[in-house]
């Protein structure tokens, strides 16, 4: 059974989050605003659950939760490099754009250099960096490899630093 007044509180929190998301959400992500409100609401609900119903949320906290949800979504989009299928710029469509031979050759050389540098990393760093480059978050990599989150985080960032210095030594600026 839900506490009395809980539904009104939930509706108020959701409305406050919707206003906060609308304030910080860039225009290019307006179609995702409802999803961002839901993500922020889930975060607030988790804090509420952990506090056993004793948490009260200020408007500042709700704005911060909305901002964090928007920033996390922007990072996720950049990491995955998603492009819209509809209404996008046809010249920027990666499926139709054919790289010229010079770009193809340079891309192949860079790919080979990355594979070579990854092969030189110690196995745990190589595994962590490979999962990171495939788009997995640190927590996902930790779960997949059976490591603690801290160990996975350290291996990813140290491995990336090693990869960067190896590529720099080969004359490739990451």
Quick overview:
With 174 residues, the chain is mostly helical.
What does this structure look like?
Helix content is 68%, strand content 0%. It is mainly α. The longest helix has 22 residues, at 59-80. It is elongated, with a radius of gyration of 22 Å.
* Gross morphology: elongated
Q: What structural class do the secondary elements suggest?
A: mainly alpha
Multimerization status: single chain
Point out poorly predicted stretches.
Answer: none
Number of helices: 7
The major β-sheet equals: none
Share in β-strands: under 5%
Overall radius of gyration? 22 Å
Distance between the termini: 55 Å
Helix content: 55-70%
What brief labels describe this structure?
7 helices; single chain; 174 residues; mainly alpha
């Amino acid at each position: 059974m839900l506490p009395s007044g809980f539904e009104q509180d939930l509706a108020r929190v959701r409305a406050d989050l919707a206003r906060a998301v609308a304030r910080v959400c860039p225009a290019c992500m307006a179609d995702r605003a409802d999803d961002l409100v839901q993500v922020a609401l889930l975060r607030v609900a988790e804090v509420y659950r952990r506090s056993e119903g004793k948490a009260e949320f200020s408007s500042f906290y709700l704005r911060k939760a909305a901002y964090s949800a928007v920033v996390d979504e922007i990072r996720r989009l950049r990491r995955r490099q998603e492009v819209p299928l509809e209404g996008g710029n046809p010249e920027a469509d990666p499926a139709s754009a054919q790289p010229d031979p010079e770009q193809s050759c340079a891309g192949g050389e860079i790919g080979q250099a990355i594979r070579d540098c990854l092969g030189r990393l110690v196995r745990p760093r190589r595994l962590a960096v490979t999962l990171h480059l495939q788009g997995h978050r640190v927590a996902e990599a930790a779960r997949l490899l059976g490591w603690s989150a801290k160990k996975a985080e350290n291996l990813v960032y140290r491995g990336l630093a090693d990869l960067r210095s190896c590529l720099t030594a080969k004359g490739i600026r990451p």
